[in-house]
Structures are given as structure tokens and as C-alpha cells.
Amino acid sequence: MSHDLSLQGVFTPITTPFDEKEQIAHGKLCENLELWNRTELAGYVVLGSNGEWVFLDESERMDVLRTAREAIPPDKLMIAGTASESTAKTIELTERAAALGADAAIVVNPSYYKSQMTLPVLADFYTGVAERAAVPILIYNLPPATGMDLSADLLVQLSHHPNIVGVKDTGGNVTKMADVVRRADPSFHVMAGSANFLYPSLAFGASGGVLALANIAPRESVALRRLFLEGKLDEGKALHLRMLPINLAITSRFGIGGLKAALDLLGYYGGPPRRPLRPLGQEKRRELEDILRRGGLLA
Amino acid sequence: MSHDLSLQGVFTPITTPFDEKEQIAHGKLCENLELWNRTELAGYVVLGSNGEWVFLDESERMDVLRTAREAIPPDKLMIAGTASESTAKTIELTERAAALGADAAIVVNPSYYKSQMTLPVLADFYTGVAERAAVPILIYNLPPATGMDLSADLLVQLSHHPNIVGVKDTGGNVTKMADVVRRADPSFHVMAGSANFLYPSLAFGASGGVLALANIAPRESVALRRLFLEGKLDEGKALHLRMLPINLAITSRFGIGGLKAALDLLGYYGGPPRRPLRPLGQEKRRELEDILRRGGLLA
Amino acid sequence: MSHDLSLQGVFTPITTPFDEKEQIAHGKLCENLELWNRTELAGYVVLGSNGEWVFLDESERMDVLRTAREAIPPDKLMIAGTASESTAKTIELTERAAALGADAAIVVNPSYYKSQMTLPVLADFYTGVAERAAVPILIYNLPPATGMDLSADLLVQLSHHPNIVGVKDTGGNVTKMADVVRRADPSFHVMAGSANFLYPSLAFGASGGVLALANIAPRESVALRRLFLEGKLDEGKALHLRMLPINLAITSRFGIGGLKAALDLLGYYGGPPRRPLRPLGQEKRRELEDILRRGGLLA
Amino acid sequence: MSHDLSLQGVFTPITTPFDEKEQIAHGKLCENLELWNRTELAGYVVLGSNGEWVFLDESERMDVLRTAREAIPPDKLMIAGTASESTAKTIELTERAAALGADAAIVVNPSYYKSQMTLPVLADFYTGVAERAAVPILIYNLPPATGMDLSADLLVQLSHHPNIVGVKDTGGNVTKMADVVRRADPSFHVMAGSANFLYPSLAFGASGGVLALANIAPRESVALRRLFLEGKLDEGKALHLRMLPINLAITSRFGIGGLKAALDLLGYYGGPPRRPLRPLGQEKRRELEDILRRGGLLA
Q1: Any chain A CB within 8 A of the CB of C236?
Q2: ipTM
Q3: First to last CA, chain B
Q4: Beta carbons within 8 Å of C123's beta carbon, 6+ residues apart
Q5: Alpha-carbon dihedral of residues B231, B234, B238, B239, nearest 10 degrees?
Q6: Are the C-beta atoms of residues A191 and A207 closer than 8 Å to each other?
Q7: By percentage, how much of chain C surpasses pLDDT 70?
Q8: Which of residues 32 through 71 in chain D touch C, CB cutoff 8 A?
Q9: Interchain CB distance below 8 Å, D256 and C113
Q10: pLDDT of residue D191
């Protein structure tokens, strides 16, 4: 079996909407997807970090995937987050996600026992999952959460597996990302994990991005890639620099609470995150509004 | 409500035994506990890091607690690991653990969204859990897993909560631990999270320890503390230095696979860890045997 | 006074040649410069990290600057490394470098007392130096050496000083670099400190680079920038990926000993570094040869 | 040659006094030493980190050693800081220090080229220095300045050199320190580099300490060790906890400026540090006074 999944393009790692009681708001999820579906996004990551998957139990995770798949048209990919610390559980969740119509699964590496997550252990983990999975696997390198940075050597080795399709890299180490592009199997996709560095990453051959920013600015996110590919470098640079403070605000600075507040401000449903995460306070909400306004997303 | 739980003494963070198919071996769990029960251990942490809790699903976690409670006599404390990234889930698991007879719950901090886990967010998390819990809460600071180090300021603030009983600190920062001893509520227990630094920590007033070492050397672990309290400093130092290479082997060097191999070598049931963790290979097993022999645990 | 120094282009942070007794080989320095002078390099950093300045005493530093200035034609800039932990000494060395004909001075931040090097302290340091300097100051951010990463806020603040001309940033954090481009005074130059990330950095407006690679591949280094500016993106990407393993070899992998060995292999004078640094051993030298050959620098 | 230098006891890493123009105040240096000489301090480290050696040029360094030696009686050791990034320069400075009467030299490891400072390179560095030195060498492990932590393996290897006498370890990793005590040559001294962890370090066999605190509280510093050795553990613990906030204030919190302000407050000469370091501001000076008062050093 060899995957023929193309990850060229920009994907949104969607939020999971909660109501005021922190319960999943399935209707709001559909409404958001309807808005995003009108754009040229290549697809969605459902139950990624912006989807607060770590706060959902297994049945909730499956419910979200079911709802999302119904609202995502066939021409847009649904990549399901199916990670778990345990190999067996990751295999099981990936199986269930595939049965619910996921086109691929994205799997962050186990990281609780960091010192024991050596290259061979992680290679076995991903190979074990990929061999049992009915859908292609996208590796998820997420140093801000895992406290680990998957090495170029590991990624290059895994790139040759027929059912491993690429990496979403959130670390921002463009030296390593380019090294992976250079050494990996040609079918392997290196995806920028943030709008902080998607645009410069295109210069060395990143296939696209999975961008928190695409939740609130899907058209601009898609344009970042298109402008580069069309060689409109001045325009591309200007858009990159215009989006940068917005992206910093909804990620490192204000976190999920900030991203959801921005959704609310821009006509989507944001709502509260689950505790211990918190909604954005009034003062920060005003700061965020300013940032969105100066960035041209808000009138 | 104010806790009257004394954490003076040495506790074993027990392993969760699995059979060859990586299923929970409840009988083996009981057999191990019967051996440990004959010692002067003050109690057990069930479902801590050495218990591979991150690989167990919720029902398995409850099953392990049930089995353990039956095998643990009333004069020894059972501290149940009930952590989850979500506040609500942590509260729920703590409730269920209390219903199963846990004397206290140990809760590692949420760490997936590290940059958002500020002091007030973590203070709210622990306070929220403690207020709803039917048993006292022991904070679990575990930098090797979480990639975060809970600050003295946070611990001191939480020490005044009537239902927060102490901290198991695995970071090994003795400056910080002493600062917490100095500034915390007098009822708050600072517990060394490793035999690497229990012995020197007693010098500034640590109450005791929760030691992986106590799985395989419960009597020596208890003796470390007793010798210091009795002022037998030469003997205590010698024992500390004798145990150190063993403890390094079963923790940072060989991990859970090493700890379980040591259990097998010393008359307990070790068995395999769950994947992605691995059993110790032959060569390392021989190295470990040497270390145990030189440390006087193996004839 | 306001600088009119343009740092558009590619600069070589040249090595300091030593003879077999580790004494400065002034003749070899001139010979190397004669070779480099034939290229389109914009200029040189003399006594940067690749120049092993930390191993030279003050009079040696001045001797190297004197020799270099004589060998560097007026149409190429000479940027002199004048750093010291002490503010007063940095001012003094900058004065002397200017008197010897340096066009600018590059100053790595003091970092021995890291915890005390707060934003205001570093701002005062650079402002104090810039105000007394007869030539413009280029900030040198060098996390691999200093263990610190100068913040965007500091760089943006300093960018408005009329005598601070830019930053050579070796950290590789393209998010931060773009943020500085966006927020800094328009006259401020953000220079990539390594060929690892010069090429992608051009996408967001880096002015150029100060590249160890330019010691051994000056034409390719200049071409990286030219290809991007001309919009020859496929060619540029290919060159970037071709140079990457070479650059990794002569920097993070084999260090100064590797860079000097490569110089020797490519018709320049390399020679030994000063101790404690070491010349490359035979085996690694062969590896390096292979890498240079595969990268097309060696026939 | 085999050293017979005993480093049992407590040493003061003395400050270098400057006058208002930041010039060395030799008279004040003597006056301070006269006060310290009346205590049971085992000796002094001159030109350590608290001595701001990185701000002094070579001739200033020699001048300070000359003055200090004249003011230090023969029964107290003078350990001279002779570090430099270069092996040859370190050898030269050590020679000159020995000629000026130093009893030993303390040498922080080169750290500018961190990635190249591998175990064999550092072993060669220290061996090379020790073999040429007329006085014994004390290794100086200083992670807060160097951004590196010398490994137990390196220290154990070097411990067998007849002219390497011990390590001053400022990292605070008590696990590693005990591992070095256990594995090193019996003649090798492990010295706590801070009052933050001297007291607990005595439990596993540290020989003594080199303590910033001993500048302002020499008698208490000496007592910390004596109380432990006499088995007065309650008294020792109380003194450790009483000194801890003071030590945190004059090191990590307020830095050299804080230490010098404390000297001024306590009847010694402090004076200003050299720039870029700064004297303590008024508000922090009041905070510091409070801390000294609550710690019983100030009436």
C-alpha cells in the first residue's frame, strides 16, 4: 500500500466549540465548518492542539469526528488527531477515526517518558501505528507541548514508510525542516505548523501549512502560499508581516482563549475553552481587537 | 475541613504489572504488595509515573485502584494518581478514587499548553480540584515529564489550602525545595520524588520520599530516612552513595523497563511495560544485574 | 550623526589563520583576503566567532585588524569585532578599531552574568557603546555562544538609535527575525547569521547575511541572495539545499576545526585553530571531503 | 607531584572593590580582607565570578592578586581565578598567579564554542593546564555563566590527575555531585558553589563550600558546615533556612550589585560594580535591607 495523499495547501486545525457549560457544541462546529468550506482551504485537522483534544474523552473525540465529517465535503481532507501515549490505544483510535471517514490521522509523539523516547523507540511507535492504520499517518512534531523536538534523522527514516505521509512541524527550526526536505523520500510532505514561519518555509520546499491562523483568516492563510508560488514576493512578504502579530496573538501570547475570542470577534463561534484554560479577559480582548483591526481583519 | 494526613515516611510509587500481552496482571499486583506490606513503608502511590498511568484507560485505572486497595492494609496509605489535563476530569477521577478507598490523590499538573499554565491558572486548577475532592491532594511536580517546574511561589500559595497536603517534587532543585519548606504552611509536606536526593533533602526538612527505589529496595529506602533522623550520618551517607547507582539505573538510565527488570531479578513480578516502552534487552539486563550486585541487592 | 551604512549583501566572517605554533599568520590572512576580494562579497567581519577572537589578546586583535584593513579594498566593508564583557573596554576597543579603519563594529552582548543582563541593562550597554563609537554598531546575537537570545523588544528599541545599524542574528528564530523586520526602524538591517537560514530569511526582508559558508563558498553565498532577489526561486531553493549539508558540517558538526580544514581543501589557508579547539582528525576530514564533493565544491 | 591541599572548609569568593570611577580600590580590598581574616574562613577565591574578573584586563587581574596576597595571612589559602578561553593564556595566567603567591588556581571551563567543548576537549584543556601549573587546579563548574554543566564522567576522569584538586560546583545538581563524590579519586574535593545547597551537600560528603554568602556572613557560613559536622542538625537546618533568602537575594535575585550593596550595609566596602552591571537602586536596596534584617544580619 502506498499513499497518494497530497498535502499541498493550507489546512485549518479547527477549534472544538464548547457551550457555556463546557460541553461540545456540535451545531456550532457545523456552522464554523460551513464558513470555512467556502474558502480554498485544502482541509482540516480535527482534534489537534487547537481542538483541545487532551480535554476530551474517547467518546467525545469520536463524536467530534463524526460531526465534522458530516460537515466537511469530500473534496476537503479531514485529518483526525488520534494520538495517545500508548501505542495500542493510538492504533485503536486511528482505526475508529478511519471508520468515521478520516482521510488521514495526525499523531503527536508520546512524550511523558521523554528520556526513554529514543530514536528507535519513536521509530517503532510510528511504524507500528502506520502499519496497522487504514489511513495515512501524518507525524505531529509539537515541541511547545511535548518538550521534545523530533530529529531530522527520525523524520527522514520514517519518510520512507509507505503509509507515513509527512510531518506537521511546529518547532520553527527552518534549518531542520529544510534538511528533512532535502533528505526525505520525495513523497514526504513537510508542513509548517504555524503561520509564524509558513511563508519563509515555502522557499525551501514546504508543501503547505497547518495554521491556527486559518481558523480566523482562511483566505489570507491560503494567499500566503499562493503569492509565494506565483512569485509575488513583495505582496507575499507584506501579507506575512501583516499576519505575524495576529498569529503571535492567537498562539503564544493569548493561547486557545485568544484564538476563540478572535473567532467570536470575526463572525465565527469561539466560545470558552475547557478548564483549566480560560476565556480571554476583557482587557486582553480589547488588545486583541486592536491587533485584529490593525492587521486588517476587523473593520 | 482540614486534612490530618501525615506524609512522614517513605512511599513506593508502585509499578502496574502487565502480562505478556500487556494486559493488567492483577494477581501479580497483589503478590508484589504482599511483599512490600511486610516492610515499614508508609504507603503507596498507585498510578504514578512508575505505574504507567498514561497508558491505562479510565476503567483500567479504576480496576488497578480497586485491586490495590484490597491488597493494601488500612495502616498503610494508598495515594491514587488521578491526573488529567482537564480540570473536570481530574475532579471526576479523584471522586472515583476516593470512593474506592484512596486516602489521598496525587495530581501532576496539566502541561500540554505549557505557555498558558501560568501561576494563576495552575493555582485555580489545584484549588478547583482540592475543593471538590473528598480526600487530600498531593501536588506532583514532575519536570522530566511535564517540561515545567512548579515554582516555589505557586507551591507556597497552595500550601495554605486546607485540602492540599504537600508536594512530591521530582525536579531535584534542593534550593527551591528548601525555600518551600521555609515559606509554606507548617502542615505542608515536601516529599523528595527520588532517591537521588531524598537523603540530602532530609537535612532541610523534607518529610520523606516517594521513591522508585522503594519498589526494589523498600527496606533500604526506609533506612535512608531513619538513619538521618537518628543522626547516624556516616551510615546514612554510605547507604545513600550505595543506592545512588542503582537508583540512576532504574530511573534516568534504563527507565520503566529497567525498573521492571530489576523487580524480576529481585523476587518481585516485573514483567514488560506497555508499548511504546520496551522491556530491557539482554545486554542491559546484564549491566543492571551487575549494578544490583555491586549495590548489595543481589547476591 | 546618522549612519549611511548599507548592509545589503553577503559578508564573510573570516577565520584568523594560525601557523603550526598557533601564532597569527598574517601573510596567510592577506592571501585569503586576496582570493575573497575577487568575489562580489559586500565585505568582511574580522574577529567574529569564526575569527576565534576569544583566544586573542588585545594587541593581537589590533594586529589582525591592521593587517586585514590593508588587504581589504575600500569598496568592501570591514566590520570589526570589538566585544568585551565590560562596557568601558568595548568602547575602548571600538575606538581603536575605528582608528585602524574599520567601517563598523560588531558587538556580541555581555553574557557572563546572564540573569543580570535584563533588557534595560543590555539597552544601556549598546546605547553606551553606540554613543561613544566613531563607527556604526552592528548588534551580534549569538545564542550558541552566549546562552541568551536577544529579544525582539530589545532589538526594536535599539533600532531607533542613529548609530546602531542592524543585527547579525545567529539564533535562527525566523519568527523573531520577521517580527524585528516588521517593527524596527526602516534603516535597521536584519542580517542572517548563518547560511542555514539566510535563504528563507530573504522572504521576509532580511538584508543579507554574515555567513561562515562565505569563507569557503563566497560565490555560492552571494548567489543565494541574488537568486532570490531575481525571483529565480527554483534555482535558489536548489542551491540552498545543496549548500545546507556543507554549512552544517563547517558549523555545528565540525566547528572551527572543520571550517579551517575545508579552507585547506579548497585552496585557501586554513591551518589549525587555537587550543582548546582542535584540528579535524583524519576520519572526519575524509567525511568532510565527501560532503564538499557531493555539494559540488570539490571536484 | 601530588597535591596535599586540603579544601575542607568554607571559602569566600571575594568581590573586587571599585571606586566611584569604577577603578580598583586596593585599599578597600585590604580593609575587607582584614575583617574576613578574623573569622574561621579557610581562605579566599580571588577573581572568581563575584570578583568580576571578566571586566578586568590582565594587568588589573595581577594587581588584584598581588594586593590580596599581601593582605591574606599564610594560614589562609588564596585561590586565584586564572581562566581564559584559550589554553595557552590560562597556562600563562596560572603561572603568573603562582608566582604572586596563589596556593591554587580556579579555572572555569571555556564555553564560547559550547558545541565543540566535548568531554575529550575539556579533559585535554584541564589536563594541559594542570600539567603546566605550579599550583593545584580547582575546576570551576558554573552553568549560570557558561550555559554548560560539566558531566560527572568528566569530573571523575579528571579527579585522578595528581594536580587537579577538586571542583567548585555552582550547578546545584546534588544527584551529580553525590555521584562524583562516590566515583572520584578519594583526594578529590567536591565543593558546593553556593549557600543554596552547601548544607544538604554535606550529607553526601561535600568537603565544604565557596560561598558568595561568606562575603557578608562569614561566621554563619562557617557555622553551616560546623553544625552539620557536629551533628547539630536542628540548629543547622534552622541556620540554613535563615540564610537561604539572604543568599537568594545577593545571588540570583539582585546579583553583584546586590552583594556589594549588602557589603556596604554590613560594615564592609561594597561600592559599585563595573558596567554593564549596575549598583542596586534605592527601592531594591530597601528590600535588601529588610531581608538582611529579617535574617538577623542587620539590627
Answers
A1: yes
A2: 0.97
A3: 50
A4: C154, C157, C158
A5: -20
A6: yes
A7: 99
A8: 49, 54-55, 57-58
A9: yes
A10: 98
% of chain B beyond a pLDDT of 70: 99
Please give the Cα distance from D50 to D268 (Å, whole number): 15
Residues A204, C204: C-beta atoms closer than 8 Å: no
The Cα–Cα gap between B86 and B107 comes to 11
Which residues fall within 8 angstroms of residue A185, CB to CB, at 6 or more apart? Answer: A159, A160
Residue with cell 470558552: A272
Distance, in Å, from the CA atom of B43 to the CA atom of B207, rounded to the nearest integer, reads: 14
Q: What's the average model confidence in pLDDT over C185-213?
A: 98
DSSP state of A55: G
pLDDT the model gives residue C221: 98
Q: Do B85 and A54 count as a contact with CB atoms less than 8 A apart? A: yes
Spatial separation of the C-alpha atoms in residues D289 and D292, rounded to whole Å: 5
All three cell numbers of A94, joined, read 486511528
Cα separation of the two ends of chain A: 50
Q: How far apart are the first and last CA of chain C?
A: 50
The pLDDT of residue C3: 60
Output DSSP code: residue D6.
-
- Residues from chain D that touch C115, judged by Cβ atoms under 8 A, are 144, 252, 255
Sequence-ordered strand ranges (E) for chain B: 9-13, 43-46, 77-81, 104-108, 137-141, 164-169, 189-192, 208-210
Cell output for A176: 531542520
Rounded to 10°, the helix C87-99/C119-132 angle is 30
- List CB contacts (< 8 A) between D145 and chain C: 111-114
d(CA C48, CA B179): 42
Q: Confidence band (pLDDT; 50, 70, 90) for A254? A: very high
Summarize pLDDT for B228-242 with one digit per residue, the tens.
999 999 999 999 999
Q: Kindly state which CATH superfamily the domain B9-230 is placed in.
A: Aldolase class I (3.20.20.70)
Q: Which of A76, A89, A114, A168 is catalytic?
A: A168
Q: Which helix (H) or strand (E) holds A42?
A: none
Alpha-carbon separation of residue C291 from C211, C253, C285, D241 (angstroms):
18, 12, 10, 57
How far off is chain D from C60, nearest CA to CA, in Å?
13
Mean pLDDT of chain D: 97
Q: What are the structural domain ranges in chain D?
A: 9-230
How many residues are recorded in chain B? 299
Closest residue by Cα to residue A274 from A67, A13, A14, A19: A19
**Cβ–Cβ < 8 Å for A267, A233:** no
- The span from the CA of D209 to the CA of D232, in Å, is 18
Give the minimum alpha-carbon distance from C253 to chain D in angstroms, rounded to a whole number.
8
- C-alpha distance from residue B276 to each of A96, A119, B281 (Å): 20, 12, 14
Judge whether residue A1 has pLDDT over 80: no
Mean pLDDT across D166-186: 98
Would you say residue B1 has pLDDT above 60?
no
Grid cell 532504574 in the structure block, residue: B250
Q: Which three cell numbers stand for residue D47?
A: 577573581
| Contact check, Cβ <8 Å, B204/D240 | yes
**Of A120, A119, A97, A118, whose CA–CA distance to A107 is shortest?**
A97
Query: How many CB atoms lie under 10 A from the CB of residue D253?
Result: 15
- Considering only CA atoms, which of D153, D37, D163, D67 is closest in space to residue D107? D163
Per DSSP, the three-state class of B213 is helix
Cα separation, B293 vs B298, in Å, equals 5
Question: What percent of chain A clears pLDDT 90, i.e. is strictly above it?
Answer: 98
Q: Note whether A178 contacts C244, CB cutoff 8 Å.
A: yes
Cell of D187: 583526594
Q: How much of chain D, in percent, has pLDDT values that exceed 70? A: 99
* SS3 state at B49: helix
Q: Tell whether C115 is within 8 A of chain D (Cβ).
A: yes
Looking at the complex, report in whole angstroms how far the Cα of residue C126 sits from the nearest Cα belonging to chain A: 26
Total residues belonging to chain C: 299
